[in-house]
Amino acid sequence: MQRPSRDPQHLRRLNALLEQALALPVAERGPWLAGRGDDDRDFVPELARMLERAAAETDQFMRRPVAAVMDALDTAESLDQAGDLIGPWRLLQPLGEGGMATVWLAEHADGALARAVALKLPHPGWSAGLVQRMARERDLLAALAHPHIARLYDAGVSSNGRPWLAMEHVTGEPIDRYCQRHQLPPAAVLHLALQVCDALAHAHARLIVHRDLKPANILITEGGEVRLLDFGVGKLLQGDGQHSPAPPTLTQAMGAAMTPDYASPEQVAGQPATVATDVYSLGVVLYELLSGQRPYRLQRRSAAALEEAILAADVPLASRRCSDRARSRALRGDLDAVLAKALARPVAQRYATISLLADDLRAWLGEQPVLAQAPTRRYRLGKFVRRNRWPVAMVVAVALSLLSGLGLALWQAQAARLEAQRAHQARQFITSLLREAQPRQGQAAGGALSTADLLARAGERIDSELADDPRLAAELGILIGEQLDLLGEPQRGENVLREAVRRAQAQLGPRHPLSVHGRALLAGSLSVQKPDEALALAEALVPDALAGLPQTAGDAVEALSLLSFQRAKLDQVAPSIALLQRAAAVAEQHLGREHEQTLSTLGLLSNTHGRFRQFERQLAVADEAMQRAQGALGSARPHNTLSAVERWYGEALRRNSRPGDAVPILRRVVADQQTMDGADTPRVRNALYQLGLALAEAGAVGEALPLMRQVVAMEARHNPLFNEDRINLRNALVVVLGFARRGAEVEAVLDELQSLHREAQPASPAHGASAANLAQLTPDSARAVLASARMARVMAYRGRFAAAEAELDGRLDALARAQPPEPALRSDLWQALALTARLRGQTTLALQRAERGWADPALREARPDSRAALAAELAAARLARGDAAGALAINQQALALFSQAQVAPSPPSATAWITQARLELGAGRPAQALALLAPLVAAWAEANPGSDWHAEARHWQAVALAALGRHDAARAERQAAQPLLQASAVPALRALAMR
Predict the structure, then answer these.
(1) 945 three-state secondary structure
(2) How far are the Cα atoms of 731, 803, 945, 975 from residue 981, in angstroms, in the given order?
(3) DSSP code of residue 78
């Protein structure tokens, strides 16, 4: 008998059957309908109509469900209203509505958290069938902690049994509208696409595919950052069943939870989705963004017609679909090939991973060969020439300017006075250099390195070939020194500059613009390895450069900046900042607001604010520099000044507890700098250094470690003598190793640092590099206290508790005496004190220390990640003393602070995640505990595999698996963890092995 369409019981049964049908491949749904028994026979016609719409229409089926179902909801249960409470959240206003759920803007009802969230709430009447699906979505999102994926903040079940998810509320616009509104060129589009690739690679590494990539699910924030939405239709690359013994395999398709315009052929055919599915969908999105057209249009008359259209459609080259001629030329060739490979119908012909697609996008941006093209000699030669056009163009421009009698850049004002004999002599000199130039073989062929070699050889020949014309020799020598500086290798020009400056001053006087310029270049080339001499040169230069304004404005700015740098090394805060502020004012007045030197000076000023822990001011100045640089130089990317400013901006974001936002910017800086320099120059090293720190602070310690080791090795090659960089970079390596809890390696690097300090002891107190760093070791130095906190943690991780306590003894008093005062560092000390006691098994002392630290008024000035670490330690101490309720309250604050600081589940936040998982286990929620532990176990596997900390996470994972009845998996985890825990030097970890 036909039931009334408004009967709630009828609707719930209809929904349950629809859920079963959507879980089947398209080809199996017809037989499934035909096999319905008598009890379900009345539902078959309505189900058939729904399934036809699900297969043949776009995702609007999920957004506008069958009208009869939605109409009936009015009588089934009351609709949600603004002001209603769902768990701890108060509904504010609806943000959007789908077929099964509404997304609300919501706030925390008790005001404990200031953030607004997007609360996903199923429609009344659909709840029973959605509990498992939303629990699965929660588990997927909990495993994803990435700056370009909208975060999951909270989840639960309302008082009437409706599941809900509280997610990051992203303010932005879909990527297609953003690109159109800003008229982004292909390079800028690809930079956004690389952020999407990073997010997808993160998900794929955790065995999760998105399965519904489309512009509406890729939002761009006001800051130009990607946020990937709607992993709700995503799928684990392994069976859904918790008891499934099968290893991770391709996912089974889950109905038509997709958007056909962007769906892969295998999705439409009802075949399993893989990472190649996301590659295809992203290829469709990229095709549309770059060409302005979709690869094909679909006629949605039936499921069969839809499948046939996608499986048979020919995808024309994107360049042929683009109406803009300039854009079409940019797409022709490599980008056409990349898009064709991403959109290949056979899965085997596509990019095997999203990372390979990203590699080709980066290769195109860097004018490197792409994998999608056949590697012919002609193709590689063409890429080589285009990749090295800047140094080639520079040499050719110099030669042409000389051969045409116009003179070099520095002599243009004097070209009219050059005698014919001098012009002829200069032409001969440059022509002979060009005949000698031989491109290097291998990776650096024809790039910055070979150009630097050419210039260095030119410098060596000046004395022998131009000695009879000292003025010409001075001009050429200064030009060579300047070009070596532009190539990032200023030290190679030192000897040439010394002689050129001597000649210029003898011929023209110390205040002549050529002499001033040469002296500024020489001081800059000496600043790293001979800071005393550089400081003396800069002090003598400043009055001469200021006297020559406006002609010598650039050199005045350089001299003031160099003086500021040297003052900063001596911790002279006010003089250092004042000098840079004056340099910025001179640059802006005489060179212009958007001149490269003005932008660089603003970047240096932001960096100096950061050096003195003035982080908010650092970000404000860096943001100003970034806005100006992108406006003036964004179309010229890659560009050295733009890269430098972006690097400083990335550092400012990191220092302001936004490392996740910094990572994509710094990745772009590294790629651009490597493209421009073509070798491991100091500029490349500095970019890698900042990227490594940002990755580590965001929790990607496993990726950061090899970068920091590479940076330290590069510095040793660049600087044969002792210098401040050598100490700073090793200190940074200590921080990253400490995050990974690699205690033995930390102590080895610290021993090396002690040796470096001892070597520097005889140096003069005025010596910037040694004096500044030796000062860090004095008892009342704030940096020394911070180093002690780090060292104590490392010792505690290795079970050397007496040494850790000795390291911390009296440090709180020393910090109170520190000049300048550093109250914010007290949280690091309290955390180290509590950690040492807890790992030793002294839980009462650990709790006392953590409670005192949490009550310390200085905590208000600490960074969020520092406060989070102390809160996590307090929660762990409370849990160790049996206070689960107190532990939960403070651990929630720790997790919120880690989220605020953009720290993923990882070694730096491990204590909080372990504690939360234990609390979930204690509350009888092993599935939630397992979801929390999975990303942490993976992070330890990358950062410190086989360590007792990896074993600790695996131990609790085994407990969760056992509680879920997955005994084989639990046994395997326990067997891997137990020997490591038994051998641990830490009593708290050894105790786990006894459980």
Answers:
(1) coil
(2) 30, 22, 13, 10
(3) P
> What angle do the packed helices 724-739 and 682-698 form, to 10 degrees?
30
Quick check: is 990 in a domain?
A: yes
- Rounded Cα–Cα distance for residues 707 and 191 (Å): 21
Query: 193 and 279: one domain?
Result: yes
CB distance 332 to 355 below 8 Å: no
Query: Which segments of 369-447 does DSSP mark as H helices, in order?
Result: 377-387, 389-403, 420-436
What is the spatial distance between Cα 891 and Cα 904, in angstroms, rounded to a whole number? 15
* Strand partners of residue 227: 219
Taking 3-state DSSP, the helix, strand and coil percentages for the chain, each rounded to the nearest 5, stand at: 70, 5, 25
Around Cβ 29, how many Cβ atoms within 10 Å? 24
Instruction: Tell me, yes or no, whether 443 lies in a domain.
Output: no
Q: What are the tokens at 320? A: 């042929």
Query: By C-alpha distance, which of 342, 266, 369 is closest to 25?
Result: 266
Asked if residue 798 and residue 855 are part of one domain, the reply reads yes
For the chain, residues with pLDDT lower than 50 are: 1-6, 56-78, 127-129, 238-256, 301, 375, 377-385, 387-388, 390-392, 395-396, 398-421, 423-424, 427, 431, 433-450, 762-780
* pLDDT attached to residue 771: 32
Identify the three-state secondary structure at position 672.
helix
Q: Which of 139, 198, 212, 544 is catalytic?
A: 212
Angle at 685 between CA 682 and CA 689, to 5 degrees: 140
Strand partners, 117: 106, 168
Handedness of CA 190, 195, 200, 205 (dihedral sign): positive
* Contacts of residue 376, Cβ cutoff 8 Å, sequence gap at least 6: none
With tokens 């397992």, the residue in question is 930
Name which of 675, 683, 625, 678 is nearest 653 in CA terms. Answer: 625
Residue 694 is encoded by which pair of tokens? 């940002």
Residue 115 DSSP one-character state: -
Residue 535: partners with Cβ closer than 8 Å, 6 or more residues away: 562, 563, 566, 766, 768
576-609 pLDDT, tens digit each:
999 999 999 999 998 888 898 899 999 999 989 9
Give Cα separations from 414 to 23, 402, 410, 411, 470 (angstroms). 80, 13, 9, 5, 15
Rounded CA separation 862/727 (Å): 25
pLDDT single digits (tens) 715-728: 888 876 666 778 88
CATH of the domain at 116: 3.30.200.20
pLDDT tens readout for residues 30-40? 788 888 877 78
**Residues 733 and 713: beta-carbon distance below 8 Å:** no
Cross-strand bridge partners of residue 692: none
Q: Which of 69, 104, 78 is nearest to 90 (CA)?
A: 104
Cis peptide before 550 (omega within 30 of 0): yes
Across the strands, what pairs with 102? 97, 121
Q: In this structure, are strands 235-236 and 208-209 parallel, antiparallel, or unpaired?
A: antiparallel
Please indicate, yes or no, whether residues 332 and 302 belong to a single structural domain of this protein. Answer: yes
Cα dihedral 361, 365, 366, 368 in deg (nearest 10): 50
Which residue range is the domain that position 244 belongs to? 172-373
528-to-116, 562, 608 alpha-carbon distances in Å: 48, 11, 16
Domains held by the chain: number: 6
What 3-state DSSP class applies to 208?
A: strand
Q: What is the CATH number of the domain that holds 930?
A: 1.25.40
Q: Is omega for the bond preceding 864 within 30 degrees of 0, making it cis?
A: no
Q: What is the CATH number of the domain that holds 276?
A: 1.10.510.10
Is there a catalytic annotation at residue 463?
no
> What residues are paired with 101 via a beta bridge?
122
Q: How many residues does the chain have?
A: 995
Residues ≥6 apart with Cβ < 8 Å to 759: 722
In this structure, the answer to whether residues 190 and 335 fall within a common structural domain is: yes
Same domain, 214 and 264: yes
Give the integer Cα–Cα distance in Å for 268 and 288: 20
